[in-house]
Design a protein that fits this description.
- 2 copies of one chain form a homodimer.
- Chain A is an alpha+beta fold.
- Chain A is 25% helix and 25% strand.
- The longest helix of chain A has 27 residues.
- Chain A is globular, with a radius of gyration of 24 Å.
- Chain A starts with a strand and ends with a strand.
- The interface between A and B is large, with 67 and 67 residues.
């Protein structure tokens, strides 16, 4: 049962799609103090949720600030990441879910200030709070997901493996990647184009010096089974003669400053204006531009920098430079030195920018900081809604860096700019169930790590985790060590992992569809299926995947194995390559399992089995006639499949029963 | 057996104390290519060592740069920390130890560039390499430790619990800390004074406005059983009229720039000169100044900023500010913006400074960067050697931030500026055995974390780890959340942990003395005692402590227990408070154990027992007549004890046998 409580004058975020009659009684469970919501926590209570946030599956013990933020250097003491997903489930004396539908800055102090209190503080008290009672975590999630509407389904090819790097500068770089993968015999479905493909980082342009014939390249690649997926950034470069800029100015589609002029921020292209994605007109206009690229044969996009990230604004930069002059007046001391370094270091991503521009909504100027967390959501929506007109019959791949609940209906997300750190494997995994709770189903982390230098063993272990996530992309930052799989000596072991991924795609895609259609989670904490098992509730480095699998990846350097907890008897599956499968039944309980660096392990749940097809070079070559079942005997599995591309999801959906 | 190989013209670091005849044959095991040393690694080889460095107990899979560096923001991709300890043990087809006695920058690529190669690259090929064959890791360590000389032994009171914070600004702040600990009934042996106590950060001064009577305060505190431990920084403030500065200039004790003038860097005091600790004259002079404080009743010091940290130099700062002017010439673009932020961000700790000053050694100008890693070592040596003259009969507490092998004879170290991160508990623990290998016995990490905001649960878990380390200090940075134990609601649980520490001091101090006298490790990887047990070799989050204990702390948030591997039957000890002891015999093998947040667990090895005395408010009140034995029946323990203060370590040493 969902209860809705309205405070002040909430902005209509469009996060939800179902009407819920507001309650006029006081909110249940939580105490509302006038400006914050408080819950007393008992020692063993668990708080799940918050989607893309740091720390563990149980969110207790930190202060989280949901405020979409470009923070590639995130650590344990980070408070804000790229997305804001204000949904929690509390397992306390009461079990309930709660969604704070608030598009501005909102703080979740979950036992940070006081271990026995959860305090939720929105910047202003204008919000809707939805409180969900349910019989279990899974039941609460189902109700919540029905409230927020069905999640986005990408084309099936998006479940293939993709290679990306900021730094593929021209057609030959792209061809080299495709060729090297082909030569290494590693399956590949997509190559991503980062900002390098554009002409001076202008959205919807192609640099013709370096990409002379994008249409030809896209065609050539598609003939090899490889989709090109270009990036689109939020900011539109200010450059006389650039049609998107000029049209946007002329038609008033950009965010305004207090004086009513188009607001100027600086990002990769230099000075930019920001489309006012919160208006239907700007959304439709910006979205229509994607046709520039779809007309060249492009059928997938990633939307970036849409928090929106702002490196600096002209006035703050000028202030800072003037201030340096003052600080340097004669003999700079230590205080002045740190004032200078803090000031310069604080320019990139400074929050002050967000108070300086406005959206024009129904004729009213709305300060950006009041609706900040909706920006990336509506950029993805802009793309998705437009592509429904441009390509009405075909699904297009979209995923975004920034998001808010509601965006899950329009695209997937990648989990932001991470690092080549072992701890970021676990962090990515711990976000998965929280993202699924919030509706984000097509998700994945930059495999191998975006920033910093990867290592061969890190890449192998990361592959062994990411091969289970719907979005499976290897991505890295300009200037870091190259990490295409063919760069490593153990390329054969890496190929084996990608082959296994392709063998698993029928299962992964089927479970993705089932969870999406059924408003369920594809990835769940072990405790969601075993709420009465204290050991299961403690597990924070294993997940159930669909109804049949449990994953327990290795995320520590030099580990030759790991501990696992089985809440039921399960079948351990070991695979060193696509066709070597060793299985072993293990009893309920705690176990240590040996796992070599070149070996994948996962578990099949008691009495279950999964379909595996033969490996193939591309998803387009996957042959469902080659399916064999792996798992317990006398079991059955209902496979969901469709043509993988039609917009009408029910049109070609088949449910095929396999027996083992 | 130790073999010594000399390359080029090594600088005499004084890391070693025993003469070893140089070998004239080529080096064993390693291949020397002319400028680097290479070893082929097999899949399961293990590389131990490197002292204070990042990553796990097995150092494989990263590139470490030993170059003493002030890096409070260290993560997985850090290469350099505060100390440089160039000693490794390789468990490969051969088992051997190797020490690269080189005081400049040296890189250890241990399977980073190529997983199957270890490549050691000193910046120049002027070094001694000591190669040690032995029957076991423990045997190799013993030989190495004999080579480098006996480790420093602090006064016994240094094993008490200490409270520190950058931010105790005056006498009343200090009194408040002492009083609040007293009121909470929490044992306390020391309060640390950070740079706040000095007059404008000038070494060997006391700010008389805020510390009117340091001698009175020290006396008052000592009457309460609390020692004041002030900080001493490496840089000497340039200020006409300041005697230390003027004398140093007059006598030529400071490092020089290329023109032969005293080199100027900027640190906390503003512009400073750096004493040339590499000369005996400057060491004796600077060391003699400690008497300013010992004459006030001070008997312990921590030496900081002695990498040496340099925030900026006048010329690079001026260059940077001029460059900003150029970059801002008209219309700053993105490239210019990042050039500016990188340049300003790169001023603090810039390596270029170390090429700009010189030591004068035996009349020869030696560029600082060639001997950089020796600076902190010789600062500690300066203090220790001087105090041997000032207080010849009494041990003084010294520990340093920066170090090199050799410094272990003169003082302890704390493990540098860390963060209030869960991962930094494990990181601190993983450094312990590597530090012991390198001779550093009096060691410990800033408990609760120095930078960032701590949480109550983090502090509890950190206490449950740090209570086993010789140096046990709670320290935090100005501006972070207060973390004195009385600041928390669970102060009672925290008191229980400190009480237990005091009960353990007889054992900890005894094992410290045994290991120090015997050139053994107090903290060892499990594999050092069980080299034939593959599971034991894999363990990287448990340590043997002395001959009787195994520690296995909890270092994950919201964990209600952990996995442990017992390579032999052991006794699990659970303590919720000083006098609640529950024991349980557990068989060899893998186990999951439940551990509440308020509970300490550790293990007593098969057939062993340990002495525990009654808890006391201060080490001075510990009563060895209250010793009871905990552990296996029919076991005995030989306790090493002395008066805890005499410089002559043998004078009052007793060995007392206890039976259980």
């Amino acid at each position: 049962m969902i209860s809705k409580y309205t405070y002040g004058e909430p902005f209509n975020t469009e996060a939800t799609v179902k009407f819920v009659e507001p309650s006029f009684s006081g909110i249940k469970y939580l105490k509302f103090s006038g400006n914050e919501f408080v819950l007393d926590l008992l020692e063993n209570d668990i708080v799940y949720g918050l989607g893309e946030q740091i720390r563990g599956i149980n969110k207790r013990g930190w202060k989280y600030v949901n405020w979409n933020y470009d923070n590639p250097h995130h650590h344990e003491d980070t408070n804000s990441l790229y997305g804001s997903h204000n949904f929690l489930i509390v397992r306390s004396s009461n079990l309930f879910g709660v969604f704070f539908d608030y598009p501005g800055k909102i703080t979740f102090d979950i036992g940070y200030t006081d271990r026995s209190k959860m305090i939720i503080h929105p910047a202003t008290t204008d919000l809707d709070v939805y409180l969900i009672d349910g019989t279990s975590e899974k039941d609460i999630v189902k109700q919540f997901r029905e409230l927020i509407g069905m999640s986005y389904v990408p084309p099936m090819w998006a479940f293939g493996y993709g290679q990306s790097r900021w730094g593929y500068k021209n057609e030959d770089d792209v061809r080299t990647v495709a060729l090297k993968y082909e030569e290494a015999g590693i399956p590949l479905d997509s190559i991503y184009l980062d900002i390098d493909y554009m002409e001076r980082y202008k959205d919807f342009t192609v640099n013709l010096d370096r990409f002379r014939d994008m249409k030809g390249l896209a065609t050539e690649m598609k003939a090899k089974g490889v989709h090109l997926v270009p990036i689109i950034d939020a900011g539109v470069k200010i450059e006389p003669g650039y049609d998107v800029y000029e049209e946007g100015v002329r038609k008033g589609y950009f965010c305004k400053n207090e004086a009513g002029e188009d607001f100027v921020g600086a990002v990769w292209p230099g000075k930019v204006h920001f489309p006012d994605f919160l208006t239907p007109e700007a959304r439709a206009w910006f979205g229509s531009k994607y046709e520039v690229l779809t007309s060249l044969g492009i059928d997938g996009f990633w939307n970036d920098m849409n928090e929106p990230a702002i490196f600096y604004s002209e006035d703050l930069l000028e202030d800072a430079i003037n201030k340096i002059g003052e600080l340097n007046n004669g003999n700079m001391g230590i205080d002045e030195f740190f004032a200078m370094t803090d000031m310069i270091g604080g320019l990139n991503g400074n929050e002050a920018y967000y108070d300086k521009f406005y959206h024009c909504i129904d004729g009213k100027m709305v300060k950006h900081s009041d609706v900040h967390n909706l920006y990336g959501f509506n950029m993805t929506r802009s793309a998705n809604e437009a592509l429904n007109l441009i390509e009405p019959d075909r699904r297009t791949l979209f995923f975004s860096r920034s998001s808010y609940i509601g965006a899950h209906r329009y695209g997937g997300i990648w989990q932001g700019d991470n690092k080549s750190w072992w701890s970021h494997i676990l962090q990515a995994m711990q976000q998965l169930p929280a993202l699924n709770m919030a509706g984000f189903m097509f998700v994945g982390a930059d495999t191998g790590g975006f920033g910093c230098d990867t290592t061969e063993d890190l890449m192998l272990r990361w592959l062994q985790y990411s091969m289970f996530t719907p979005l499976f992309r290897n991505h890295s930052c300009n200037g870091t060590r190259f990490q295409e799989l063919y760069q490593f000596k153990t390329v054969e072991a890496m190929k084996n992992m990608i082959d296994i991924r392709y063998r698993l795609i029928p299962y992964l895609y089927s479970e993705f569809l089932k969870a999406t259609f059924g408003n369920e989670m594809m990835f769940r904490p072990i405790g969601f299926d075993y709420p009465d098992d204290r050991d299961a509730l403690n597990v924070d480095d294993q997940l159930f995947l669909g109804n049949e699998l449990m994953i327990a990846p290795i995320y520590k350097q030099n580990a030759n194995g790991r501990y696992v907890y089985l809440p039921e008897e399960m079948m351990l599956v070991r695979m060193n390559s696509a066709n070597e499968i060793c299985t072993e039944i293990m009893p309920k309980g705690h176990h240590y399992i040996d796992v070599s660096l070149y070996e994948l392990v996962f578990f099949i749940r008691s009495g279950k089995s999964i379909p595996m097809c033969d490996a193939a070079s591309h998803t387009s070559e996957l042959d469902f006639d080659t399916i064999t079942m792996v798992g317990y005997g006398s079991s059955r599995y209902v496979l969901y499949k469709d043509d993988g591309i039609s917009s009408d999801l029910s049109k070609t959906l088949e449910k095929i029963e396999y027996k083992n």
